[in-house]
Structure formats: structure tokens, C-alpha cells
Amino acid sequence: MAAHPADDNLVIALSRLYARTGATGKAETVLSDRVSAEPKDISARSALAQLYLEEKKFDSSIAEYTRIIVQRPADAPVLNNLAWLYQQKGDLPKARELVERAIAAAPLAPQIDDTFGWILLAQGEADKAVAYLSTASLSAPSNPDIRYHLAVALNRVGRSADAQSMLETLLGSGVAFSDKANAEKLLDQLKRG
Length: 193
Fold this sequence. Notes:
globular; mainly alpha; 11 helices; Serine Threonine Protein Phosphatase 5, Tetratricopeptide repeat
């Protein structure tokens, strides 16, 4: 990297290496130095935003993704990530506005449909949520998080048998996913009636 300091691929590779070995502070420094030197470097800024996201430094991640959106206002994955972050912070109106922009930029993207469905569910619009989450699940049938979100939505609209069946299949597959504990808890509740 010393020989090619402007090479984004090397900067990002070094930061990922640091992150994988548990040196997230060094990973953050490498990326921060790069975006300080080159504020318009979208690749390094995206990697920094993702690193903050993984570290659950949501405010820092939001700041980096917001800087990217200034340069690329129709970047659907970035809009989607920002929407998810605002949802995590409890700002559902902002989350919805961002995910609607993401959908306009990339219709029928399963991750974006999933985010929108999850936000709709949080806003009490379970019927609409089922529609978006069903579409996402059909487009990405092997994504366990989407399938879990759909099961939650199905349960909310009174389709508990469908939700239970989906959760049994999902949990029976043995695949690991971020909401596995919540899925197990919901399945247990559904089995008890």
C-alpha cells in the first residue's frame, strides 16, 4: 500500500484484513485516512460505512452513507442501508422515505422489498408488508432473514398456520441467520397457540 496509496482496492483489502483479525480500530483508521485524503472516494466511504454498521456505530454509518447519497442520490443499496439504519434508530418516517426512494431506483430488488416490508410492518401496515415480503421471499427464497420477516407479517395478519409452517421449514433447515433466536421464540409461541 505504501507503493500505491491511491489504490482503493489495496486500501479496502487492508481494512478488511484488519477487521477480520479483530483490529477494527486499524481498519477504521485506514479507511478514515483514505476518505479524509479523497472525500469523493465512494468505495472507501462505502467500506467505512459498512464497517461502522457491523460495529453497530449507527450514527457514524448514517453519516457516511449520507455523504455518499449527496454524490449519488439514486444509489439504491445505499438508500436501503440508510433506511434500515433509521428504522433501527426508531425514525420510521425517515426510514420509509429512504426506502421508497430505493424502490424507485431499483424496483423488484428483494433486499429493498424486505426493508420496505419490515418498515411497513413496524408502522402497522401488515397487509402491505405481506405483499412486499412475499415478493422479496419469492425473489430470494434462500434468504432466511426475509423468510423470517414474512413469517412475522403472516402472523400479524392472522395467518398463524402459514407463519408456523414457514418457521418450521426455516428452522428445520439448520441455516444460521441474525434473527434465529426471535424465529425460535415466535415458533414456540405459535405452537402454544
